[in-house]
Design goal:
By secondary structure, this protein is α/β, with parallel strands linked by helices. It has 14 helices and 15 strands.
Length: 422
């Protein structure tokens, strides 16, 4: 059951909305308000999921009401759909500035409920995301944080995690190496460091005086592994003293996890070269460059001959090792500007920027011979067939894929272990 607040100074309009929502009584619970002030009162006492807000109201209009809603910490995330008979550009712009969406009066019932449902689903997704963030934060908080007491003259005391991370045995040893902990904050986008301070304000004063809902992250180099680590930093002043308690909670795993997701979305898990999805993205970029600058661009598709026989004879473990060796051999023999990727199974693709078809044929023929001469564990020898083509005027990417596939088919049907050009 979702709680919807309908705000309109015209009672007839509220009755219309109530009657529309009554049909879905098992899904929506309706609250009504005839003014902005009344709406604000309801919001402070009820948990509302979405607001339908009239724009033209006396005393406090819809935009002013929305601004007050967005300024309140409790209500700022509630989606607002404006209902207005005005359709001028200024009204539409203000609707999006102060709310989430708008509908023109008279509105269509289907469109109204469609938009309501869309925004409620977004609210539900945001709630789930917030729950996940809270869970992740609780995991981080359970770790052994770096904690130290700091005053304007420097360190007062620290915990063992501080000494372990900074690889020192005492505050005196730390002070011999560094002037202050804050000097080690690395400058990087979206991370706090000393360069953001103004008017010579002390960094502890700055962070401790910030609003509770503002969070700061910092980067510090871990000298044991020579890699930066990310921390959530919290600074609290100790009453009636000039001292501050500082805690650094390691959040590196979260940033690393997002990089791992990015890697999985980009690289083939077995061969560690670009996967098909990433290759499609890259070929689109180079295709656009080709259309703009008309520099030659060639494409080749590789297929390992009789690879099914390798799996059937030696098993999938040896089959995987064969693919890895094949990939490494090709990858090391191509240029840095070339893009090599796994297309699927035993098929691979190679994009060769600024390469004419005759140059491409020579290059892939060299790769074919290289594979023919390479020793593969258990299997000993494999070969590959290659179809190669060049982008031509008015070609689409699909045209290239079809033409190279035809060339590959010709190479395989005419005896395999050869290069054919289309």
């Amino acid at each position: 059951m979702y709680d919807i607040l309908c705000v309109d100074d015209t009672q007839a309009n509220l009755l219309v909305l109530e009657s529309l929502f009554e049909v879905h009584g098992d899904r929506y619970n309706i609250f009504t308000a005839s003014s902005g002030h009344e709406a604000l009162g309801i919001l402070l006492n009820q948990s509302i999921d979405l607001i339908l807000l009239d724009v033209m109201m006396p005393q406090l209009d819809g935009f002013e009401t929305a601004q007050l809603i967005k300024e309140n910490k409790k209500t700022k995330n509630i989606p607002i759909i404006f209902l207005t008979a005005k359709r001028d550009n200024e009204t539409i712009q203000n609707a999006f500035n102060y709310g989430v969406d708008y509908l023109s009066k008279p509105y269509d019932e289907f469109e109204l409920f469609t938009r309501v449902d869309v925004h409620l689903k977004l609210v539900e997704s945001q709630k789930q995301l917030n729950e996940q963030i809270i869970f992740n934060q609780s995991v981080l908080d359970s770790q052994h944080s770096i904690i130290f007491i700091q005053d304007n003259n420097g360190l007062v005391t620290t915990n063992k995690s501080f000494f372990n991370f900074f690889n020192v045995e005492s505050i005196a040893e730390f002070n011999e190496k560094h002037n202050c902990v804050s000097d080690l904050f690395m400058e990087y986008e979206n991370y706090f460091s000393l360069h953001v301070l103004n008017n010579n304000i002390q960094w502890c004063d700055e962070l401790s005086s910030s609003y509770d809902d503002i969070e700061y992250n910092i980067l510090i180099m871990d000298t044991k592994i020579f890699e930066p680590k990310a921390f959530r930093i919290n600074v609290s002043g100790i009453d009636n003293t000039d001292k501050f308690i500082v805690s650094l909670t390691d959040i590196t795993q979260l940033t690393t996890r997002s990089k791992q997701f990015e890697t999985k979305a980009t690289y083939d898990a077995l061969t560690n070269i670009f996967n098909r999805s990433k290759f499609n993205e890259l070929i689109s970029e180079h295709y656009n460059l080709y259309k703009r600058y008309k520099k030659p661009l060639s494409f080749a598709i590789f297929d390992i001959d009789f690879f099914k026989k390798v799996n059937d004879t030696y098993g999938h473990v040896i089959g995987d090792e064969t693919l890895i060796t094949f990939t490494k051999t090709i990858d090391e023999a191509t240029r840095d500007t070339d893009i090599f990727a796994r297309w699927g199974g035993e098929e691979f693709v190679l994009l060769m920027p600024e390469t004419k078809i005759d140059e491409a044929k020579i290059a892939v023929e060299h790769l074919r011979v290289l594979i023919d001469k390479t020793h593969f564990k258990e299997v000993n020898k494999i070969t590959c067939s290659i179809g190669v083509t060049q982008f031509k005027n008015n070609d689409t990417i699909d045209d290239i894929l079809i033409r190279s596939d035809e060339a590959l088919y010709e190479a395989k049907s005419s005896g395999r272990n050869k290069v054919c050009v289309k």
